[in-house]
Amino acid sequence: MSKDEEILEELSEFFKAFSHPVRLKIIINLMEGPQCVKNLGETLDMSQPSISQHLSILRNKGIVGCRREGSLICYYIKDPRVKKLYNLLIKEELSWQEKS
Amino acid sequence: MSKDEEILEELSEFFKAFSHPVRLKIIINLMEGPQCVKNLGETLDMSQPSISQHLSILRNKGIVGCRREGSLICYYIKDPRVKKLYNLLIKEELSWQEKS
DNA sequence: TGATTATATTTTGATATAATAATAACCTAA
DNA sequence: TTAGGTTATTATTATATCAAAATATAATCA
Q1: Which residue from B1, B14, B50, B63 has the fewest beta carbons nearer than 10 Å?
Q2: What is the CATH number of domain A3-92?
Q3: Residue B57 forms contact with A (CB below 8 Å)
Q4: Whether domain B13-91 has CATH 1.10.357.160
């Protein structure tokens, strides 16, 4: 596979991370700051395994990172492109977010 | 479904359009200007039905539009978010594109 | 150590998406 | 009207994704 093909593969994988409403929710929440899985689950009102599965997808793509903090595992946005994308296209669509 | 849920659904569908390398290629080509299906097929070296299927996906999401021009059908970028996204995240990753 | 809380992984079944081949539809020109 | 070139649709099969349930792992605390 050529260099350009690889780039397109990687880019499409990046966008695939954003192509599910639950993952979008997770990403939007993490944009406000690092969160542990438990908090995410409570905020989004979803089952723990479901949250965990989507987090592992985001982790495998390098979109988010995580660190253990005692008994909790704290997730945070890792890929710098996320912030760009959030500011450019996502933030302004969200009615519950103030535009700054 | 709440308003916010709908927004997230729509956004995730938008990103899904970019989550396949062939669709990315098509979009990148169309960013340089409108193109007929035949040209796209030759440029991307892909089967006509495959191109046509991906174009119909992009069409259904409102990402691209098309018009007939004689015996050809000409596709063009329709969703204004595409240009933003292209300039922000895609252009700079492509080695064959000059950065402006 | 055992119990509890927090998180991850695996499995299963349902659904969606993909590639390919075959066919249909549409336009133009002879 | 027929032929040739262009595009779309359909059907099929393979693969990927999804949600949900069950189970496993890891840390903390009694």
Answers
A1: B1
A2: 1.10.10.10
A3: no
A4: no
